[in-house]
Every structure is written in C-alpha cells, then in structure tokens.
Amino acid sequence: MGTPVSALAARIYDGLHKAVVGQDDTIFALELALFGQGHALIEGVPGTAKTLLVRALALVLGADFRRIQFTADLMPSDVVGTTIFNPQSGQFSTRRGPIFTNLLLADEINRTPPKTQAALLEGMEERQVTIDGVALPLPELFMVCATQNPIEYEGTYPLPEAQIDRFMVKCNTEYPSRAEELELLARGADGFDARFLDRLGIAALVSLEDLAAARREVRTIHASAAVREYGYEIVAQTRTAADVGLGASPRAALQLLIAAQCCAAMDGRDFVTPDDVKRAAPNVLGHRLLIRPEAEVEGVSAAAVLRRILDSVAVPKEPPAALEVNSREAAAPDPSEPENTAAAALGAGTAE
Q1: CATH (domain of 247)
Q2: What is d(CA 114, CA 160) in angstroms, rounded to the nearest whole number?
Q3: Residue 126 lies inside a defined structural domain of this protein
Q4: Is residue 115 part of a domain?
C-alpha cells in the first residue's frame, strides 16, 4: 500500500513553504487539483508567487516541468507541436510541443487569442493531443496550472466559459500579511533568491508512483447519499440564484464531489462530510458562476453569491460514515461469544 494521502499532502505543503511564505489557501487549492486529477487557474497581481508556486511544486514532485509564456502572437502549434518535413529523408516527423510534460505552466493565459487558448482543451479534458490527425497520449500525470492578472485587461482575451469550466479549481494569490512579508524580507536578507530554487535544497518529496496511488485512493473515499445530495443542492441553487446568469455545470458537480473526497483523504479520513463539501466549494464553483451585469453593477460577486448559497442549503443531519459502520459492527452479534453461539444454535433448532 502506498503512502497515505494525508502524509503526501503534508510533505507537499512543507516543501512548498521552503520557497513560498504564506499562500496557504492557494497551496490547498493546488493540492485539490493535484490529488483530484484536475487543473488549476491561479489569479493574482504580479509578484505574489504565482509562477514560483508552480515551479516549486514541480520540484517537490520530481516531475517534468514546462512553461509557456502566452502572448498575442503565440500559435496553437507552439503549444501542441507540429509536423516537419525533412528534405533529406523525404519524410515528415512530429515535433512535440511543450504540452507533453507533467506540469505545464500556462503563464498569463489570457494574453493569447482564443484559438491558441483552445489548443489546451483537448489535452486538459481527454489527456491526448491531436497533431495532423494523429492522436498522441499525454503522460499519466498531466496538470495545467494557468495564471492570469486580474488588474490589467488591455490587450487580453478573457477565457471563454468552456475553457474556464475545464479548470477544476481557481485560487487567488493574495498580498502577504505583515508577519509573512517580514519573514520574506528576512529570507531575502539571508540570501534567498526565487530565481535559483535549486539552491534551496528542494528535493523530490513525493514519487510519481506514490502520487498515482494517492489519486486512486482518493476515488475510493466513501461519500454517502446524503452528502452527495447536499453537494447537488448547492450546485442546483447556483443555477436558479437571481443574480446568476449561468450556474455551475454537471462537470462542476462531479468535480466538487472529487474535491470533497480529496479534503477527506488529506485529513486522513475514508469518508466525506458536509464540511468537506463546503470547504472545497469556493475553489471549485466560484469561477464557474457568471453574474448578471445588473448585479455586478450593484457590487455582487460570485464569492458573495456562493457564500449565500452555502449558508442557505440545509446540512444533512446524519452521523459520519465511520460512525455508521462502527454502530453496525457493535450491533452485530459476535459468533465467538458463548452466549451468541448458544443463541445461534437455539435459533437453528427453532427453525428446524
């Protein structure tokens, strides 16, 4: 049996904090996407460790890492690759693009036109890329971490809803607190330089085999019917909320369930609770809600609508799955006990 998900999550958390100060919420969201086999959209102003987090994550995983700086003149072939004619051999050969990697950083993804943005869609959803009619599989571990700047919109191309829905989670890198920034300055005074992560001694703390086993373990976490219905009610209310023009999709509902399973596994449990669903919901659902223009004018945000929904949906009143199992086991008679053996024999005699 592989290393428990909770232990791997702790290793990743500790490893990332060798390079990054704070940003705990963003690290949590990245772990949800990593263990849930999804992709992450990271939004934040410049200089808040978006790129640094993904680079450090690749080192902690010991995974192959590629970075694409998305610009207005980037072409789809620059992402997925192309076929090249060799005049000497008279044959075509395939030159694979940077998408063929384990961890792909799509930096400032909203600065490239929709045609190039769409080059990622097949790989993100189907784990394969088609080049000149030939489907080429991507590695088993393939995760896209895309970044964008929420301030500068001049010369940008907002991601379409179809693309946004492919991202399992969205997270925001915030300015550090006073104590965190002072810690950052202290590290800088001691010689820390984010450009040279190899000097920090960040080694691979998680093997790809352990990660693959952890991903399989996550999907075995028990989610009761009541918890599944609770998640559905949250998603359903995003579709009927007065301030929402477009609610969460069925894909979002499934990814919310998987993210809740990740939360349970990261906490060392083999069952999902409603708190796991509530904890995962902001990262999984927030970016999928399209707020009506008239509501946006009034200052309504997707985060505010989601908080209102989470507060209004009734939490199921049921004992955790582990307690249900224990209670059933306690109620069942033990055939090894003498009185239970006699009772069983008496029952058999009565039946005869």
Answers
A1: 1.10.8.80
A2: 8
A3: no
A4: no
Which of 52, 65, 63, 57 lies closest to 20, judged by CA?
52
Backbone torsions φ then ψ of 40, nearest 5 degrees: -125, 140
Dump pLDDT digits (tens) for 310-323.
999 999 876 554 44
What's the domain range around 263? 221-330
> What's this model's pTM, rounded to 2 decimal places?
0.84
User: In sequence order, what are the residues at sequence separation of 6 or more whose Cβ sits closer than 8 angstroms to the Cβ of residue 230?
Assistant: 274, 277, 313, 315, 316
pLDDT, tens digit, for every residue of 183-226?
A: 999 988 988 888 888 777 777 888 889 999 999 999 999 999 99
Number of H helices, E strands in the chain: 16, 11
CA distance 132 to 81: 10
Closest CA to 263 of 254, 255, 272: 272
Q: How many domains does the chain fold into?
A: 1
- Position 182 in a domain: no
Distance (Å, whole) CA 287 – CA 81: 30
CB neighbour class for 136 (10 Å; exposed up to 12, middle 13-18, buried from 19):
middle
235, two tokens: 């998603």
Residue 260, exposed/middle/buried by CB under 10 A (0-12, 13-18, 19+)? buried
Q: What is the mean pLDDT of residues 42-60?
A: 91
Give the number of other Cβ atoms within 10 Å of residue 97's Cβ. Answer: 21
CA atoms within 13 Å, Cβ hemisphere of 238: 28
User: Which secondary-structure segment (H or E) carries 125?
Assistant: helix 121-126
Token digits of residue 83 = 């076929």
- The one-letter amino acid code at 140 reads E
pLDDT at 320: 52
The per-residue pLDDT for range 226-257, each reduced to its tens digit, is 999 999 999 999 999 999 988 999 999 999 99
